[in-house]
Structure formats: structure tokens, C-alpha cells
């Protein structure tokens, strides 16, 4: 019992703390150095990379990103766009040094549609992600986004090909009347049109000279292909007629029309793809008109002095384009009769009422009338040209040519011989007198405030026209042209009587236009000239003079601007047909 009690007392007694070992000073210093190295290592491996990453990726374009030597790192998108554009402005505008085979030349970037897409290039730079330390090793280079018009590049390079090139003979099968004639391919030398765009895009701004090799150009269709087309398509195609079966009746296409419409020409790569020229087929077979309905375009009419749109009428036609594969298949057969079923397809009018309605042609803008003596041959020509001019529509920004619209004045069009000025004399010619229509049109254009592009007054003054504000035309050398500089379209309407012609322009009125004249100066009296010519036209003669006129533009009664017109009229000689009088003998 005494022993157990002693044991419990010992366990309850306080325990003395253990003795700490004594660490020598040299050991303590070594441990401190290890703690400092550990702290530095953690800082280098964790803190520095995090700080570097924050610095590197803090902007739209990461640090270390370059484009064509321009450092875009650390910039926003907008700043990077400005920096890149400004830095490369001169380089992108400079001529591009190229070598076509062995020929050195230059290419104008603008002329071939070669551009640096700065915005797209910066977006590519934004997506680039260099490593945190890439900038320490010079960063990364991002390829620019470059675009070129391959067709224009090819055209520009071909001017420098010269004797290095030898154009290939492209294969084809043509028809001499109804006899197939084979054109066999011959390889050539030149530039690969499919690669020039990519070559220029890849080399521009990176290399001093962009090289374009001269290579063999081998047509894709071979001699065997041509022979096969002659035997399997061209020869049987013209061996018999073809019957086109439509819901509105049958149309027989003779072999001559097949030869005119069947096209066995190769593309630019020398590959022949058989096709059908449907326009040529319709032209060669007038019978198609019996099963088709031609469309009628929407037009303007004038009712009670206002332009009104007459709606279009859509047409219908045999769907030759849709049936082309079936037609080509039928032409390969020798069975007779050869028949192909062709459906009817809609043929929309080229001009719709909606299109005309959107032009803003809603009111009279100007009108002008000139007078003439009834019953003269020139009256026929005035009416013929006025009818050809009636209904012309000039779109916003479009330049109208009177000669281009009316065409040459010929007997076949209804023009007759009438007096007109030719080499300073009054001569008879088809269309003589049509300058009266030109003058009337010019005055209508003048008072509509439209832009004068080309006009020329007569050599001699005629009192049936306003001085200076008049025009003459000669096909094709002397034209009347004006530009519709209004934001809306215009309609030209004409009307004739036995003694007058009127031109009225409809659109949206912008100006109130008036004319102001200066005095006639430098007046010269006419000389007298005797003519011994079979088609002599006598004249009374008119003085020559110089005069100026002003076109005054007004809005709400206030003058906005004015234009000056001036002209010098030659004196019209007093032409006498016949022998000059003999001087009396002294």
C-alpha cells in the first residue's frame, strides 16, 4: 500500500522542463542564411512572375507583340491602330518592287487593290499571347492582314512579262456552219494567275522584292478531251433537229440554231465545260416568241401635267437555262426525233414600278418651247428626234448624252435630208434641223438647274433660239451632255405641234432659275458670198457678235449662286447661189 501511494504522489508532482540544447552561433547564422535564400526563391518564382504577368497582360495588346517591326505592346486597340497606321503610312503607299521572271519592275499598290487592313491586323495582335518573359527575348512578331485584287495584280504583272511569256492555245470546239472544228491545246509559259494574289500578299512589306516565277501553263482539257467532245457531243448535236416541248406548244430547233447556241469554249485555265447560249438560241429560233410572253418594263406617262408610273408586266419564257443539262444530254444522242420537255418560267421586267416610284419624280421642274416654220423637211427630223427623246429617265448622278440616247440620224430611222451647218455652209444632210431639239433640251436643262457637261452653241446666230443659251449637235463629234446632280431622278418629256417643239423635265424642284444677259459687243456685219454648188442654200446673212448670259440660282427668292456663259457668233454670210456679177467694162 505504501508503494502504491508513493507512486501516485510521484505522478502528481510537477515535472521539471526539459533542458533545451545549446545551439552554437555559427549554426544559428547558417540557418538564417537558408531562410533568406528561401524567401528570395519564393519571391522570384511566385511574386515576380505574377507582377510580370500583370504588366504584360494589362492592356489590349500584350507586351512583346510586334507587327512589321512596330512595337504594339502595352497599347489599347485604338492606340495600336493609330500607331501602326502612322508608322507604316509611307511604306504602304510606296511602289512595290517586283520581279516577273527575270524582269524587275514596280507595282502601284493602289492600282492593284493592295491594302494593309490595319484594324484586322491589330485584332490579330490582340489575340496573340506571348509568354511572360517573351519580351526579354525580343517578343513575338504577328503577321499583318494584307489583301490584294488578284485579277488586277495579274493584269499589272502581265505588262512586264514580255518575251518571257508565250500564251497557251486554249482548246475549243467551234462550228463552221454545221461542221465541228477542233482547236487543240498547246502549252505556254507565263504567270500562274491563281497564285499571284497570295504571293504578293505574303511578300509585300516583308521582302525588298516580291518574285513572281514564270511557269508552264498547261491547259486542263487535253487533245483527247477535245476529240471526245467532237465525237460524243458536237457531231451528234448538229446531226438532227431538236424539239423543245413546252406547255404552250412545241418548238423545233434546227441544226443551224444548235450550232449557233452550243458553246464548247474553255475557261481561262483551258477547261472546256459545255454550255448553251440561250440568248443566241432564242435569236436563231424566232418560233420561241409564240410560246413566250415578253415582259414590259414600268414606264412614266404624263397625265394632266404630272408624271404617273405605269406598272410593269412580267413575262414568261421557256426555261431553257433550267433545262440546259437535259438539252445537252439529248444532243449527245442520235435518236430521232430528239425531244426535251421544258417548263415555263417567270421573266420579271427589268424595271419595276417600285423602282421608278423611288426616284422622286413627282412634279414639273422646267419646260421650254421653241418655234419653227411649218411644212419644212427639217420638221420631220425635229419630230423624229423628239419622239426618240420622249420618256428618257436620268438617274441621280448619271450623265445623259443626247447622241448616245438618240443615236446616229439615218434615213432608216425616219430622218430626211434637210439644211444644216457644215464647214460654215448650209448643206443638206440626214437629220438637218435636229439642233432645234438640242437647243430646246438645253434650255430645259438650263432652267432645271442641272449640271452642264458639254454643249456648244451654233457657229451662226439664229433668232429662233435665245442667244448663247442654245446648242447644236453633230453625230458623233459634237454632243449635248448634262449631269443629273440632283438627289432624285428626272424624266424628259417632249411634245411637238406643226410649228413648235417642247421639252419638259419632271423631278423634284430644287431651284428657281432665271437668265440675265449682258450687251452684244464686237458686232461684225455679214459678208456676201456667191456659191456655185448643186445643193446651195441661200441666206440673208446675219451679223456676228459676242454676248454673255448668266444662269442665276435662287431659293425662296434669294440668290444662291450664278454661272456665266459666253459665246462669239461668226457673221453668217449672205450666201447667193450663182455666178458673181461681172464687173462693168470701163
Overview of the molecule:
By secondary structure, this protein is α+β, with helices and mostly antiparallel strands. The chain has three domains: 65-163, no CATH class; 223-355, Roll (Ubiquitin-like (UB roll)), CATH 3.10.20; 359-577, no CATH class. The chain contains 14 helices and 36 strands. The strands form 13 sheets. A four-stranded antiparallel β-sheet has the order 9-8-15-16. A hairpin with a 2-residue loop joins strand 8 (172-176) and strand 9 (179-183). Helix 3 crosses helix 4 (118-127), helix 5 crosses helix 6 and helix 8 (255-261) packs antiparallel against helix 9 (278-284). It is extended.
Q: Roughly how many Å apart are the termini? A: 197 Å
Main sheet, how many strands, which sense, barrel? 4 strands, antiparallel
Rounded Rg? 43 Å
* Uncertain segments: 42-58
What's the structural domain tally? 3
Region (Disordered): 1-20
Transmembrane segments: 38-58
Domain YoaR-like putative peptidoglycan binding: 257-333
Organism: Dactylosporangium aurantiacum
